[in-house]
Design a protein that fits this description.
237 residues, two-stranded antiparallel sheet, transmembrane helix, transmembrane, membrane
């Protein structure tokens, strides 16, 4: 420990302590993600994504066997990812926005985190990161699986590689959707508590409706994400 010129103490964190803090944070994020996964809304979102991916996978196989064009295949992958984002990711975001702090306090998680050395807003940050990670994974993993299936059903190596490239774009979109929806859900839950879900819905839908009335839906979270999805998968926004 050193001292500043004004006499106040200056804490210096060594490499060992910094590594220990990172380990504690990773463990805290994993715990929050597992608890979020068990929430009813998150379970519904995960099940919905599985059903959507299975349905689109069946249609994808039919389109490929029928000699569907590349544009049709790309459109199918985008549509599947969009549905998984808003049905699955949206349900998980609503679960994350429902006053997770109160649930953690009730179940003793805050006390446990304090005993393990988590300081200040570490638990709030862990909740936000866990929501972002879970939403990104729930969207991205099945989207990549669908892209791999589409590539495997393609009639040639160039076509398969092109579909895999689209899959990479879908994964990038999943990460962006996870950050946007998970971050907004965490903030809504922290600020509004038990009314966090209502705040989240308002923050997403009200600007979307106003932007749509103004003739430019891109100035909203759904519109911006939809535009981003087209851009990262080589489509025309």
């Amino acid at each position: 420990m050193g001292r500043r010129m004004d006499g106040s103490s200056l804490n210096r964190v060594g490499p060992a302590e910094a590594a220990a803090r990172r380990r504690r944070m990773r463990a805290l994020v994993s715990l929050c993600r597992e608890r979020l996964r068990r929430a009813p809304g998150a379970r519904f979102g995960t099940a919905a994504v599985v059903a959507i991916a299975f349905g689109f996978g069946m249609v994808l196989a039919f389109v490929q066997q029928d000699g569907g064009a590349a544009a049709a295949l790309d459109g199918m992958l985008r549509s599947a990812t969009r549905w998984m984002a808003w049905v699955g990711g949206g349900a998980i975001a609503l679960a994350a926005a429902h006053d997770r702090a109160a649930v953690d306090r009730r179940d003793g998680i805050e006390a446990l985190a304090a005993v393990r050395g988590a300081r200040g807003g570490a638990l709030h940050a862990a909740r936000a990161l866990s929501a972002m990670q879970m939403i990104a994974l729930v969207i991205g993993v099945p989207a990549l699986v669908l892209a791999v299936v589409g590539a495997g059903l393609s009639g040639s190596m160039p076509a398969g590689l092109r579909v895999l490239g689209v899959g990479v774009g879908l994964a990038v979109f999943a990460g962006a959707a996870g950050v946007a929806l998970g971050g907004l859900a965490a903030v809504s839950g922290r600020v509004a508590g038990a009314r966090g879900r209502l705040v989240l819905v308002a923050l997403v839908l009200v600007p979307w409706a106003l932007a749509d009335l103004a003739g430019n839906a891109r100035w909203s979270i759904p519109g911006a994400l939809d535009t981003f999805l087209f851009l990262v998968t080589g489509g025309m926004a």
